[in-house]
From TrEMBL:
Keyword Transmembrane listed: yes
Subcellular location: Membrane
Gene expressing this chain: Armh3
Organism in which the protein naturally occurs: Menura novaehollandiae (superb lyrebird)
GO cellular component: cytosol; membrane
UniProt-recorded name of the protein: ARMD3 protein
Xref: InterPro entries: ARM-type_fold (IPR016024), ARMD3-like (IPR039868), ARMH3_C (IPR013636)
Chief place where the protein resides: membrane
Pfam families: ARMH3_C (PF08427)
Domain Armadillo-like helical: 435-671
Length: 689
């Protein structure tokens, strides 16, 4: 008996020489692609069409195969199909609704592929017709809103979100997607919030809902009033905000878990020996297969929530046990979010204890800790463009957090201590820290650790100047809060001072190479002013008087670096070149550091000579420092505890435009045919009543 093969909408008997038979749905599509009204000969044409299983590939391919002129000839039939799809969304039979949703996906993608060079208005005209666009799109958005808010099928809700993501990402630059004007006018914001506030819906659809919201917020955000921005900024419902936080936490945790698994693979046997030998050669490889693109979308959602909604700041500190994910319940669970992580990203299967604790012991965790761990991974390797963008966005999020009064209050709270195991780049000159020995400290210590880690590990030829500037700004903002609120933080400040001095040393050693690309004096000035902040106000926020003494000890011990920096900036500030002004600012900023060096060095030499000691110990130097403060004269420097607040529109618009473009392309790629598969849906709706 001859076997039957199915390919591209054709049914073919492999041993027969007859012409291939087409599926009925393909024959019906062919009728639509003629200039005749298909319902003329068959009044039940549209009713029957939506009972047929959609052939996405054939429909999209057919649309893409037509040239512009041919497409215009069948415009009326395309409009008719679009309108009947919208009508079918109101049908009682779920199979028809499913087929209508999938047909809409194919129509939108197919018509856009054909009209890439034309404006969004032409696409609207081709799909629905100008005269009916407003009413049709209103009906479409209302139907999608009803389906998302109804208590019905979760599969239908999933398909609705896929269609909306398809609609939003149909153009690379979402701000050029004129169809979105109708999504702005007919808002689905409340439907998205409802998904995020319900544990069951959130678990099924939270990821898509959060990504959709992040993209909608970025539609023409600088050009007009975007209702999604306005609405997101005033959300104050705790369950909704927590739900959003849980979705973001799971996506980042899943990334962290996968990275940790890869890291452990490479740290066994041969790879371990090789990695120790060649430093960070395998860092990129260890994480190569882990999708960064999906996390960029989630990271954008976290940024928008932190930046736009002050109430979301409380979610960052919302504690939950750091343990494996709960198995998905079969029945609805209470409205309060009880699972530590709230949704399954598209890449994950159903999770049964997915994230093992990254710390040695199970302890409480929160979104901020998960985010800091994620940041410590993506900021390791900034050579890759995706990671560079991710690293930059991590630092922008931390900048917003460091400026927020409430965030600073819980960051510095002595009663909120956590053990945060950040990922550290393998380096030949240092041993891997033992995870079990990590102390419990206020969260600001982990933020400072992350900044120190970045400073120490990125001094390279392809110098990420922008990231360094942001890093130093974050440290400065945290110090400003500590000075203002007189918070005496028990932190290993020496590690920060040492990192900053080494950074200055690097800038000087690579002056010629770096000056060809960057104004290194901006960064040098910021670093010097951090030291000035410690010198001028350190007695109000350093934990003990001996910490202040240690600051002076480090400056004196490393005086050669400051002397060299002064020589360099003096040389450039006395020349008439382009660096005259920025270099002279550093010269003036060094006045107190030089005063300390010039005051204490002779005293130390004198002490050594009197006591016949060739090399003084640290305690002996500290003794000299303590006994000679009285005669030290320092200049009061203004504005050390002032900073310019973060502003997205004026400074970051180009970055976000490019980032959103990249996310839009990646989301569209991930909406492949298999994610729109009907198999599960048909099982769910196996009978039509």
């Amino acid at each position: 008996m001859a076997q039957t093969e199915k390919k591209g909408g054709l049914l073919r008997k492999s041993s027969a020489s007859k012409k291939p038979l087409k599926e009925k749905v393909v024959l019906m599509y062919d009728e639509i692609f003629t200039t005749e009204d298909p319902s003329k000969c068959n009044p039940r044409f549209w009713e029957e069409l939506f009972l047929m299983k959609v052939n996405l590939e054939y429909l999209e391919g057919k649309l893409e195969a037509l040239d512009g002129e041919e497409l215009m000839k069948i415009k009326d039939n395309i409009n008719c199909l679009f309108q009947h799809c919208i009508q079918a969304l109101g049908e009682e039979h779920p199979i028809r609704v499913v087929n209508a949703l999938q047909t809409l996906c194919a129509l939108i993608r197919g018509v856009h592929q054909k009209n890439k060079s034309t404006s969004g208005f032409d696409i609207i005209n081709m799909l629905v017709g100008f005269d009916k666009a407003e009413l049709c799109m209103k009906n479409l958005m209302e139907s999608l809103d009803s389906l998302l808010c109804a208590e019905g099928s979760e599969s239908l809700k999933s398909l609705c979100l896929k269609l909306l993501l398809c609609l939003v990402t149909v153009t690379d630059n979402i701000s050029q997607n004129t169809i979105l004007e109708y999504v702005m006018i007919n808002s689905i914001f409340e439907a998205i919030l409802q998904i995020l506030s319900s544990p069951l819906s959130r678990r099924e659809h939270g990821y898509d809902a959060v990504v959709l919201l992040a993209l909608l917020v970025n539609y023409r955000k600088y050009e007009s009033v975007n209702p999604y921005i306005v609405k997101l900024s005033i959300v104050d419902d705790e369950a909704t905000l927590n739900g959003m936080g849980l979705v973001i936490a799971q996506a980042l945790s899943e990334y962290n878990r996968q990275y940790k698994d890869k890291e452990e693979e490479h740290q066994t046997g041969f790879f371990s020996a090789l990695t120790n030998m060649v430093g960070s050669m395998f860092i990129a490889d260890a994480d190569e297969k882990i999708s960064v693109q999906t996390n960029e979308a989630i990271l954008l959602a976290l940024y928008e929530a932190v930046h736009l909604n002050r109430n979301f700041i409380t979610v960052l500190a919302q504690s939950h046990p750091e343990m494996g994910l709960m198995t998905t319940p079969t029945s609805p669970i209470p409205t309060t979010p009880v699972t530590p992580l709230g949704t399954t990203p598209p890449s994950s299967d159903v999770i049964t204890s997915a994230e093992l604790p990254l710390d040695a012991d199970v302890q409480t965790s929160n979104l901020l800790i998960t985010f800091l761990k994620y940041s410590s991974i993506v900021m390791q390797d900034t050579k890759d463009e995706h990671r560079l963008h991710s690293g930059k966005l991590c630092l922008i999020i931390l900048t917003c957090i460091a400026e927020d009064q409430y965030a600073n209050a819980f960051l510095h709270d002595d009663n909120m201590n956590f053990r945060v195991n950040l990922h550290r780049m393998p380096m030949r000159h240092r041993k891997k820290a033992a995870d079990k020995n990590l102390p419990c400290r206020p969260l600001v210590c982990a933020v400072l650790d992350l900044m120190v880690e970045f400073i120490v590990t990125h001094m390279m030829k392809e110098f990420p100047m922008d990231l360094y500037v942001r890093c130093i700004q974050i440290v400065h903002k945290l110090l400003c809060y500590q000075k203002k609120c007189r918070v005496r933080l028990h932190y290993t400040w020496r590690e920060l001072w040492s990192a900053l001095i080494n950074l200055l040393k690097f800038l000087m050693s690579n002056e010629t190479v770096l000056l060809a690309k960057h104004n290194i004096f901006t960064l040098a000035l910021m670093v010097v002013n951090l030291f000035n902040m410690f010198i001028t106000y350190g007695d109000t926020f350093l934990p003990t008087p001996s910490s202040y003494d240690e600051l002076y000890y480090e400056i004196i011990r490393m005086h050669q670096n400051f002397d060299n920096l002064y020589s360099m900036v003096l040389r450039l500030s006395t020349n008439a070149g382009q660096w005259k002004e920025p270099a002279s600012k550093v010269t003036h900023a060094l006045v107190n550091i030089r005063a300390i060096i010039n005051h204490f060095n002779p005293k130390i030499e004198s002490y050594a000579a009197v006591n016949h000691i060739s090399q003084l110990s640290e305690d002996q130097v500290l003794e000299v420092v303590r006994s000679n403060y009285d005669t030290l004269t320092l200049k009061l420097q203004d504005g050390l505890d002032q900073y310019e607040r973060y502003s997205e529109q004026h400074k970051e618009a180009a970055f976000f435009k490019e980032l959103v473009r990249s996310i839009s392309i990646n989301v569209r790629k991930n909406l492949a045919f298999n994610t729109l598969s009907q198999e599960l849906l048909l099982k769910e709706f196996s009978t039509i009543s």
